[in-house]
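Memo to structure team: turn this sequence into structure tokens by end of day. - J.P.
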Amino acid sequence: MFARSKSVPELMVTDLQKSLHFWTSLIGFNIVYERPGFAYLDRQGIQFMLEQYDPAEGQWLTGPLEAPLGRGINFQITVDSVEPILQRLAEVQWPLFRPCADVWYRADAVEVGQREFLVQDPDGYLVRLVESLGERPCLNT
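Reply from structure team:
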């Protein structure tokens, strides 16, 4: 049985087929269901909805759609390993927004480590793929 997440971002896209290629073939999401102009995606409980932009449909837009879309937001997606995704992106020469790096972020008395890189989808939405490196004591308390 498919379980819907309690929070599912819906991204307005300019070309649904290009977006589906990125999100499914390159990032590894599955299409849960689709209808004309819309797709619901899932990858191990992480879910997105993609909706084809159509100015005649009265969609919920708060302002004009200008590329790159999604300015000011990045979607962090935790995966078991970033390497297979990096390989698929490299095979099609998809540019990375930030290269893969190991980083540590302070979280109170510990640091949380992750191997991460950033990539933009066809409309410019920023996606941060993350592989957990665990936790360590914070060096500077």
